[in-house]
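thought: fold this chain, then report.
action: predict
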Amino acid sequence: MRIEVTPLPGSPPLLNAANLLTLLRLALVPVFIAFLLTHDGQHTGWRLAATAVFAVAALTDRFDGQIARRRGLVTRFGTVADPIADKALMGAALIGLSALGELSWWVTIVIAVRELGVTALRFWVLRHGVIAASRGGKLKTLVQSLAIGLYVLPLTALGPDSVVDWTRWWLMALAVALTVITGADYVLRALRLRASGLAAARTVSRAG
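observation:
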């Protein structure tokens, strides 16, 4: 017996262009890590390849959301999977750089704790609604991407006092600050969403 599942009228299909870009970003994470860690991160060619893969993956994060909104392809799966794919990419890059001794572990831990916490919050309030990405969150992601991209590039030959080294250090410092600030904002938004959801549920229960 063959069962065919068709989407409800007006509901975008699960496998749409936006969601496929999100899945592509997830698939690129292990490829990026493999390139980054090859030859202990000391081979210029592999580092350039890792940078290229990271750039492509980061670009999918920019375009999948735009495509979903412009073409009416926003789905609950995409709303949840998109930030997870983003966090997987950023987390893998930070852990890889710290494992290579090129980025302090405390930076990776602070960002990882925030990202995992926000993901947990999204699932915690999922039955009450979806926490959309804020402007601050998008800015945080952009700054993180730029900082990580500069750290992944094979720039050690320029020396520790080069302009690029100084630039990426300050970008990463800004990324950490935005990570903490936007993390606190997500906590407040999650608490408000859950409170409003519970209030609405109690109202419906009384009415019934």
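thought: worth noting. Residues 15 and 204 are 34 Å apart (CA to CA).
final: tokens above.
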